[in-house]
Target: DSBA-like thioredoxin domain-containing protein
Amino acid sequence: MKVEIYSDIACPWCYVGKRRFERALAVFPGGEDVEVTYRPYELDPSTPAEPAPLRERLAEKFGADNLDAMNARLAEIGEDAGITFDFANALAVNTLTAHRVLRLALTEYGPAAQAALKDRLLAAYFTEGENVADHARLTEFAVEAGLDRHRVVAYLASDEGVAEVRREIDEAREMGVTAVPTFVFEGTWAVQGAEESTTFLRVLKQVREGIRERDGSSSAPEPAAGDACADGSCAV
Model:
């Protein structure tokens, strides 16, 4: 089974969704054979390359009055998922370069290395207050995930991957992805939002049955979405 996860490093729900999906995968029979890849998505391509306090940028978008309640709810949800959100110190910054490194991890090192780097970048952004656009810090994160230092340095010094990542983001929008995380199973069934692990487990089982029944028609069962979709994703 192949699962493509469209997400952005700057999306807290993507962090929650990653953890919840991994919990479901850990108890799914045959989960070790599920190939998971992360696809790039930018919630706000206009975010500057120079970092600024995330709190200020979110206050501009959602209003300062709503921000504390939003962050408190996410902190509670994050705690349940094993995530420590530190919104007070988080930095808003353009994520295109980080997506480039994630693409390098996938194409040259494989899905496991990409997943490790994805987790490292999410922690850097939301827990450690790091600048995930800084080339030196990105290199360190990539090395921690198993990538070769010299390859990463050379890659970041070039334009490698820029056009490809931008094309993938455009393709995601063209196929109808408007919020993240969005989980696409076998290129056919999609679930949007950071669903509960129990929901993801049910979806995995449904997709497995759908794969067995698939005959080129649309008769296979559609994965069910739970109540978390309403506020379990970050929309454009």
Q: What stands out?
A: The beta strands are 2-7, 35-40, 52-53, 91-92, 179-180, 182-185, 189-192, 234-235. Confidence is low (pLDDT under 50) at residues 217-230. Residues 64-80 form the longest helix (17 residues).
